[in-house]
Amino acid sequence: MSRAALLVLADGRFPAGGHAHSGGAEPAVTAGRIKDAATLEAFCRGRLHTAGLVAAGIAAAAAAGADPLALDDAADARTPVPALRQVARRLGRQMMRAARATWPSADLDALAAARPRGAHQPVVLGLAARSAGLEPLDAAYAVAYENVSGPATAAVRLLSLDPFDATAVLARLAADLDRVAARGAEAAQRVPHEGVDALPAASAPLLDITAEQHAAWPVRLFAS
Asked: 210 in helix, strand or coil?
């Protein structure tokens, strides 16, 4: 294992398409729920402990060798609105292209063949981590970080927020990231004995509602 592979996977410049998505920050900014660094931090913390936790568990389970098709179905069940399911699969398709070019593997090829329109992004990210020789906890960290770094980066563009302030928000979330990644990896360890029901199923109804609304906007800066 090369831990440096985690840096590549979690790098915002990894060509997995995340730069085009705000993780719900765009509708939150428009509604006035994100207006400065303090409200961005509150938004990211809530997202991390809900959508981020779910993604961390799924990614860790994929990295641990759980059935990716069962995990993809579990991700679908934990993503109640069509807009977010479509986004997750679109991001998964882009992640698949990047991962297969970077860390080719039979596991990635098999999932690409089984889900030609895209598997959920955390499933693909977990398999990419496995193909790169990383541990389930590494996958959990990568996907948890992506769940908050995306909104933080988007807020810089949407609010003209000082990039230093946005980075400071991510730094203050470090302890929460540790806890969420650990919880996701611990849940993944139970999957072989308990099935996918062992994975987190936290919900964020406001993110679901605003995602559907945002998808219908005629003009928007971000795809989601």
From this structure: helix
Cα angle for residues 12, 183, 201 (degrees, 5° grid) = 90
- Residues 90-102 have pLDDT tens digits of 999 999 999 999 9
Q: What angle do CA 106, 110, 114 make, to 5 degrees?
A: 175
pLDDT tens-digit series, residues 21-35: 999 999 999 999 999
Dihedral angle, C-alpha 145, 49, 51, 115, nearest 10 °: 60
In terms of Cα–Cα distance, which of 12, 58, 5, 9 is closest to 151?
12
> From the centroid of its chain, how far is CA 136?
14
Residue the block writes with tokens 């927020």: 161
Query: Cα separation of 118 and 107, whole Å?
Result: 14
Q: CA–CA separation, 105 vs 212, rounded Å?
A: 35
Q: Which residue has the tokens 């997750």?
A: 88
